[in-house]
Amino acid sequence: MTDAISTLNKAIEPIQGERMEEMSREWNYHPKLPLHNPSIFRWPPDPAFLARWLARNWLTLSERVMMTLLAIALWFFFYPSLETARTFAFGWILQVWVVNFAMIFAMAGGLHWYFYMRKRQGKKLKFEHRDQGKDNKLWDFNDQVKDNMFWSLGSGVLQLTGFQVVTMWLMANGYAPVITFAEHPVWFVLWLIILPMWSALHFYWVHRLLHQPFLYKRVHSLHHRNVNIGPWSGFSMHPVEHFLYLSTLCIHWIVPSHPIHLYFHIVFQGPGAAMTHTGYEDLLIKDKRRLALGTFYHQLHHRYYECNYGNQEMPWDRWFGTFHDGSPEATAETRARKKRMFG
């Protein structure tokens, strides 16, 4: 699902320095293999690594900082106030839906336009050789992008809005605990840092559930049509999967939160999915990595299915034996696991 780990050194590394041995016949591009472990939960603990991780993700203009700034803007200017949300009414619910529709369309559409229509980066740092699928009955409308847009903007935006509206109503009426920055500054900041970790935990176990044969064949296979992913693929899911995936937002019904936390979580789960499914590892500006996008870790999941169910934030795949490090040995093990699961 959504993976935001990046490194500052990688962010400024010239693309001209990529070595040819990092390419292969199977991939247009992949990072150095086997994949390393960037999780802050690795053992033994490394305080210096943790400090660098915090600096990269929260003290630079990272994707998480940008998501936080967007959440603040949504709170101030775009979403209705909690006072308005005390009573269910068509007007403010429609407002939430319109804002969410516009965010998903702008993020996924903008990335698709930049990488796949204008081809501004060519195939530099693109994992797959292939372009998006067309003229294939596998897809609704015989087109991968139209198929993904239909599910993302239809079921995706509707259910994202539904979870958000209910959560705002609960907050507005005192059924969900609400905090302010002035009263709880430390928890306010900590909860922003912890939310992506909670999302990673929730995503791993929901994803494992969706890969059980009964649910995979009837539900999750729709998302996995996208072996060659693109920005519109990230939020393209069966309605049942959307419901399970977005149930992560229910944490705000229990854990004290500010509306900014909820909106950050909304951005992380919705528009953030477009970023992690771009099909490219990073955005390049003047041949230098400036923004982390997709990860080869999750690209391996879309290629081989029964591996890398989570993301690199939490080491669940390593702990539970479902990690694919990009090696031929890991591919053989993953294929054997798939054969055992599906016969």
UniProtKB/TrEMBL annotation:
Classification via InterPro entries: Fatty_acid_hydroxylase (IPR006694), Sterol_Desaturase_Related (IPR050307)
Subcellular localization: Membrane
Main location: membrane
TM stretches of this protein: 65-82, 94-116, 150-172, 184-206
Keywords: Membrane, Transmembrane, Transmembrane helix
Domain Fatty acid hydroxylase: 196-322
Cited PANTHER family: STEROL DESATURASE (PTHR11863)
Name the UniProt record assigns to this protein: Sterol desaturase family protein
Protein source organism: Ruegeria sediminis
